[in-house]
Model the fold of this input.
Amino acid sequence: MENYIIPLHKTFWGKEEEKAAIQALRSGSGVGDLSFSEELAKSLEKFLAVKYALPTASGTASLELACAILLKRGHEVIMPSFTFASCANAVLLVDARPVFADIDLSTYNIDPDDIERKITKKTRAIMVVHYAGMACDMDKIVKIAKENNLYIIEDAAHALGAAYKGQFLGTIGDMGCFSFHGTKNAASGEGGAFVTNDKSIFKTAEIIREKGTNRSSFMRGERKKYSWVKVGRSLILSDILSAIALEQMRKLEKITRLRKKNSEYLLKKLNKLSTKIILPKISQNTDPNWHIFAIRVPRLMRDNVIKELRNYGIEASFHYLPLHQSQMGKKLGYKRKDLPVSEEVASTIIRLPMHPKLKRSEIDYIVEVMGKIL
Done:
């Protein structure tokens, strides 16, 4: 891995996380659902104002859990193509079909109008992805879901701490899926969380997540024995990683505040280049967490701009290859130009460094270099 003067991501870890991990190592076997995992679940429930939270092995595990609860063979799930493979994998693993929709050119989030166009009799759910911690148009999407009797799965892997009309992302739909991956705002290396306000969904989630057994209710003293009751998976987060995630939850408001401060400063400084680049736009009714700071440049310039930024010691990167353009997308019957906005965004986007430890002098340097390159 290359060493950059200014990396794209940097974890906001300190002695608290180190102490918590050591305590978890010394106090238990490191398996899931011990005291730190229970405390993490309570912390998430309180912070997000949801009834039920379950720590999971990853954000991907949370998506797989959501799909295992809802879907059967023949079901369809509408989702953006401009996202990570985990979204489509979670659907395919239960023999359902991902149906790709296009995105909005200004927010890079799923286009509600295209969702409506893609609904069929087989549609079971809409999977929204809050890209970069910017909210999808949830009013429109909730209305579409209600009118068509569809579930909403929120992929909020980018969006912990971000809100839409005062409500945290990941808590508006039927299920929310979060990530504690090492690149995320709150990071435990690997890890995630599944949340819901629906008791029935929660009860099923508990069983599937714990290898298809009713062990969770046994651990609460609700039954004398536990046994295998459903097809399940092993999706539990280690208590050691839960201990780190718990400390990150305690710092989340500070992390979000620092990211906002840095993003606002970077936006202000880059504004002088706004005739040459497209700056990130805060989607309507959103209070973002600035997980990603993404700009766009003309297609023919994009790869060269990334290369030059890296030459100057600034880690910059493209992002998703739209899923419909991938090898797997082609197997599902998609072809180039099926989703033109997704393709345009994917070929022009550049992620710039954004993290809580970013210094003003580093932001000034990024802007100075961008000016030189452009």
About this structure: The domain at 15-247 is CATH 3.40.640.10 (Aspartate Aminotransferase; domain 2). The first helix runs from residue 15 to 27. The mean pLDDT is 97. The radius of gyration is 21 Å.
